[in-house]
Amino acid sequence: MIGSAEEYIERLRSYKREIYVLGKKIDNFADHPNIRPTVNAFAYTYELAKTRDEFAPYSDLVGEKVNRLNYMNKTPEDLMARFDYQRELSKRMATCNYRCTGCDAINAIYPATKALDEREGTDYHQRFLKLLKEIQKNDYACTAALTDVKGDRSKRPAEQRDMFLHVVEKREDGIVVSGAKVHQSGAFAADVNFVLPTQTFKQGEEEFAIVFAVMPEDEGVKYIIQNTGVQAKQREDGEFEPGNVKYGDRTTCMVVFDNVFIPWERVFIFEDLKAARDVLNYFAASHRCAGAACKAGFIDSMVGAASLMLKANGLENVAVLQQKIAEMVAVSEGAYGISIGAAAKGYKANDSWQPNQYMANAGKIIGVEGFTKSLVNLIDIAGGIIGTSPSEFDMKGELGEKVSKYMSASEKFTPEQRMKIVKFIEFWATSSHLIGAVHGGGSPAASLITLRFIMDIEDKEKAVKNCLDL
Amino acid sequence: MIGSAEEYIERLRSYKREIYVLGKKIDNFADHPNIRPTVNAFAYTYELAKTRDEFAPYSDLVGEKVNRLNYMNKTPEDLMARFDYQRELSKRMATCNYRCTGCDAINAIYPATKALDEREGTDYHQRFLKLLKEIQKNDYACTAALTDVKGDRSKRPAEQRDMFLHVVEKREDGIVVSGAKVHQSGAFAADVNFVLPTQTFKQGEEEFAIVFAVMPEDEGVKYIIQNTGVQAKQREDGEFEPGNVKYGDRTTCMVVFDNVFIPWERVFIFEDLKAARDVLNYFAASHRCAGAACKAGFIDSMVGAASLMLKANGLENVAVLQQKIAEMVAVSEGAYGISIGAAAKGYKANDSWQPNQYMANAGKIIGVEGFTKSLVNLIDIAGGIIGTSPSEFDMKGELGEKVSKYMSASEKFTPEQRMKIVKFIEFWATSSHLIGAVHGGGSPAASLITLRFIMDIEDKEKAVKNCLDL
Amino acid sequence: MIGSAEEYIERLRSYKREIYVLGKKIDNFADHPNIRPTVNAFAYTYELAKTRDEFAPYSDLVGEKVNRLNYMNKTPEDLMARFDYQRELSKRMATCNYRCTGCDAINAIYPATKALDEREGTDYHQRFLKLLKEIQKNDYACTAALTDVKGDRSKRPAEQRDMFLHVVEKREDGIVVSGAKVHQSGAFAADVNFVLPTQTFKQGEEEFAIVFAVMPEDEGVKYIIQNTGVQAKQREDGEFEPGNVKYGDRTTCMVVFDNVFIPWERVFIFEDLKAARDVLNYFAASHRCAGAACKAGFIDSMVGAASLMLKANGLENVAVLQQKIAEMVAVSEGAYGISIGAAAKGYKANDSWQPNQYMANAGKIIGVEGFTKSLVNLIDIAGGIIGTSPSEFDMKGELGEKVSKYMSASEKFTPEQRMKIVKFIEFWATSSHLIGAVHGGGSPAASLITLRFIMDIEDKEKAVKNCLDL
Amino acid sequence: MIGSAEEYIERLRSYKREIYVLGKKIDNFADHPNIRPTVNAFAYTYELAKTRDEFAPYSDLVGEKVNRLNYMNKTPEDLMARFDYQRELSKRMATCNYRCTGCDAINAIYPATKALDEREGTDYHQRFLKLLKEIQKNDYACTAALTDVKGDRSKRPAEQRDMFLHVVEKREDGIVVSGAKVHQSGAFAADVNFVLPTQTFKQGEEEFAIVFAVMPEDEGVKYIIQNTGVQAKQREDGEFEPGNVKYGDRTTCMVVFDNVFIPWERVFIFEDLKAARDVLNYFAASHRCAGAACKAGFIDSMVGAASLMLKANGLENVAVLQQKIAEMVAVSEGAYGISIGAAAKGYKANDSWQPNQYMANAGKIIGVEGFTKSLVNLIDIAGGIIGTSPSEFDMKGELGEKVSKYMSASEKFTPEQRMKIVKFIEFWATSSHLIGAVHGGGSPAASLITLRFIMDIEDKEKAVKNCLDL
User: Fold this and answer.
1) Can you give the pTM of this predicted structure?
2) ipTM strictly over 0.90?
3) Could you tell me if B16 lies within 8 Å of chain A, comparing CB atoms?
4) Which of A127, B66, C150, D170 has a C-alpha 20 to 30 A away from that of D143?
């Protein structure tokens, strides 16, 4: 089913969840000012799916069209469509679409459980398919949680057991888990959260090698909403003060698992080191690759903002500034191109189509560099006003007339319009997106380490040896 | 006199000013939560001046020691001491010291008025000296305002007269001016504001070629405080939530001049194109050069934060992360080195010692690149938590114990301490400092244009010609 | 037909051509020491075509398999295979394959002449197909010439007519052309040279808007071989002195057209501004995109060399150096990924499949940056010895034993082997490849200008407007 | 004494030295085509010393004026004058001045031996002063040798003793040493070579901890000239073919010490780990700092070349290209500024004035980045012709008239002049200067490691702690 934004929001309003904002448990979370922008972003994924066929593929599993972000990709074209969707969402919302990690998780758990069952004769894959059907049929919004809080990085997980999500009890009907995850974008506003390991584990650390799905309503699950970046402004009642008032800054949370019971039907990997590693590898490549398409969309949004700002300032004909925009377009198309190349040169893995691992990691590296460069270009183009502007409240306040007058520039834009653009660019420059670009899908260093391990160095040495008759 | 922080604050409390926050005129501005961090920063300049002799030079003009930031530099050593002070303040406060532009203005108006009087037989220089004496004797906090709001950049000033500060009436006892300035860091909390032109002007545009001092109490002067970046958080009552709770984000304002009367004794350049250009050139070189020392101090602060974060995470022995810190140190010392080099290779101009113009502009370019690189390194080192962290309110709230537990890492730091570091780095990544680095002292493009005009290309062509016998 | 290296070389030996080296016309050019490496590179394209099916596609036009570089691409897969071939050749030879421009020309002239005939009712396309059949059947090596010498860039072509290739006479049986082209990689060792315009022209400049094929044997065609970079060393009889002794540095030439007669059957565009622009646009996108794959292959070669050097020095376990190699892999895979993405998201144009223009230009930008970064990494990894090493002649000379001893390092490599690697990296650092990376397919600025013209800025502005309800 | 170029060359012609080029011992080395450009460069240092007073300071040691490069610096001004001299030489010659390392060695051995004698009661310092007097009186050209061949880097020196210069015999009248050094710029054409250790050593490795002076005539000293980069071209008899025909590419050599006897009077440190480390530290800081000034001069030369090329091409009014030149000026002035800053903020050490260590290392990092950026800018500005140009031999050869015609551009330059500029830029792009920029004074990694060890991290942490009340 292709769900609607209304259905999603209605469903959300019916849920009871333990969500904390600024130290207090909140009610009616779906309409809470700190959470509403995230809800809007989720909602927009439903709306956009209706605009283009390739965002709503037909699923054999359920015999109907489903949201592309709940789909298990089988072909290069599937993967390209998914990256197109990703770029489009990022461009249009200037923030996270939140369902991206859910899609990565589905496309990682599917092949990993299939291989696990083949190896061990278990039935994890069937359990997963059962949930996946439900997800596809109801167009549930899914997210995924990887990063454990980790505590002291100089210690192994077992030395500080509770800093990593782990099994505290194995029961007949399921397992009980404890620990905490961070960086969970939008988990509090999803229907389903997949839980995956944050790293590979060694023998003796099996208790951490687990994969399962948690429902936000499950007892003992607690969400603590971030309070960073432009977040605080969200609470204002201003119309355009936070810059991206509709969709807001990427909003994550810490998820505490306080002895949470997970029935076996939602456990997909249980204390299996290899399968946990598989799932992590699939997820990482998928998420880094989607991240490149996401950065492309973000840069698109910055390009649009830069162009509007030049026009609002009467500077649209200055060649050197237009060239700076072209530089931004180059990195946007470059990052997107890599994700598409990764889809085209991907590989089959247990029915699924996975992105090319080299390019997935290259996409991460070039995406971060491109995002940073674009952000600095955008700031340069926009002028100092994006860091010093009065507020909409000033424009409507006691000195409103004067503020409006002095905020005006090109006659093609009203002062309000120009200020909205200023605040939008201020949002880009001061939101948590730069942090997200660096750390989303793991740090650049993580991608370089992956490349070190997978690069076929012998092939390249051989080419040189042939050249030199060595 | 070397004033004290207490005296400055007391003085501030005695002033009546027209200051607007979020559209409303405020009372008791010196203690207003949005303004208090700026006041703290000004206050700290007084405290630090007492710690090192070279921050409190002896002034012949008044026959006593004065604050280095109110001093007119006469030697290379003066300029070096000024840059040392600048770096130290930036490092210790992680924000603007606000008196920097005042110092630049003093060192620009002095030689420009001296030359003007010699050329025209006027007495502007004496007027200026009279005010300067008062400033030095009372250790007044001074700032300077350059940037006009500018309106539509495709038009000349005369086509949109009121978008540039200009003379509306010339009277026997003074002049009346109107217009608005933006990007005025801390002007609302200073004793004296110098007002300088934002650009050079052509014949027929003399009405804009003016330099004067305004007292914030003058009738018709209105300050509209910015509402950007982490500004909004300032209003919280959190102890460390805004990251840099004591000194805050750089706080600027729009200054509206609503037919403000300026007596002749505070007018230092009146409708003189050449003198206005001189003052602008002196100011720009001085401010860009101070900006390089300032970026060095900012990077120092980031270096300190990065090192503390590694320790708090138990990662202090990871070589590749330590190397990233060393890269930050390299750009900090590089930017600082350029400012010192500019002082050493400066030049005498009408009694004053001015920084080397080539290096001043090079310092701007390399300072921006270094700041950006350092910021990305800092984000990379610190981890994603700086963009996703719960708040101090969560740590003190209903789930406080759990939040504390899961925010803890190395035993050498309490969870509160670690969170303070997290929030401080979040501040660096999401404040307006990146914008300030790009645009403070003018955009990088402005420095490149200056270099194009001053570079001695013939000397370099000649060297090549000699090499090639051309 | 898939030709053999032997056939190609034999054919070459049978040709009579006017080729000049160091001011003198040479004989037996195919075996001349300055030209032999280029011949080897051409020859290797024949050898490699036999190793993988996708390098030898079936051509409907001639009803047999043909070399991928003589093929007109019809599908995304065709284009991907071409880029795979390109990368492989660059990786294996560490230099130009020389047939790349021929392939770009075929894929540009084909759709442009088809459109031209449809528009004008002419038969240029049939003429072209006739030659293309011959090329495919005989597996001729083709190159293409674009860049005119241009003279004084501040003048239009008509003001310095002879600095641009142009029509000097239109006859019944053909045309007579005059002028000169530069940067012609390998033209002197090809079977066929396509001649294309270097830029777009305005009305009144039709004489320059021509496309045709020249045979190097045509009377009046003169090739002047470059004498740059490591070229001079080619003349030594040393075995490994020039670093890349087999395939050499990219070798170009100036081609002088001294009143050359071209029969109509080899004229494909005659004084048609639009068709000339079409051909230029197709060529530019194709060549920039192939350039990204080429840079990937070059970086692969550098990666192989870096890895061998670390092993030869006993440094293969130093993590920070391995990370530098991973950075190189990231840009190689990134540039390659963009070219593949461009193939996947290309478009149909008059039967041909053309690469996505956005990505083609992005690939150029990111390819240059990546190449430069990789080169600096390679130099850094390799150590100063690559700029200071004695020669093979020293190793074989009077002090041979000592030189061998002091050039030795890890026991896994003989001193000769280590020196070969040193000289190969010296080749990378001092050959003309960096210049080629910057200027091949036009300068980065040319790509940015193209992006400025084709970027869909409205789409991006619209996304922002929707975000902001503008 | 301020010697003259003639005296230096005459002296050189009188020496008997064992010098090998391409495997053969040569005679009349001073006039050998591969060595002559180096001799010209040395000679120019004598000429330039006569043009400016600060290049010829008065030495108390000998009671007369001496060449700045043989002077022991006592004040910040001394060091600044030295860096000015360095920049000027690099700018004017576009290559190494070769005496730079000699100057670094003098300024490192002086304070280190003074401290050593104070600590141990030895008389090394007096020995050194005796030689220094001779050097100053005769204006001898000095160079210094650091880098040992090193062999397998995974082994300690003692495991491959002969790969490091070491003591093989201690005699009453002196010591006998054996081993080999590489990267020795111009050593073969100097009067005196100082020999310093390449690294610090541990206890038990004392045999390597030695410092002495060798005369190139000493028995057993063998110089093997490099054969890299544009070196091979030097042998041509063309007037401007090698691009920088007068001064050539930086020419280094391998120096083999085949049981060389060094009398005690020329031994300055003998098997003392601490003193050897001191000398290395002083040398490294001094050389890295001089390297920053040197890069500034190199970039100046590139700036001159870029400007001439634009004029020769008729492109001097294109703003975007002029901006690229301004970017080069920014990094030139930045690197120079850091070296001047390092002089100003240096420190006194046993009578000598040493550069600030932070800035010395920062100068290295920023110098390399700036050099690379400038080189790419230069290539971009100059156009592809610098990688594809015919030679002067073509211009004078059979097709001379045509080549001249097609190489011509702006009428302000003859074709010969334009080609000289082309070849000069080709020289910058294909010489070993990029390698030299990366590795001269040690790799960038070495500077970062130094910064890690010397950075005052506590001071920076403390500033943050104060900010946060930690």
Assistant:
1) 0.97
2) yes
3) no
4) D170
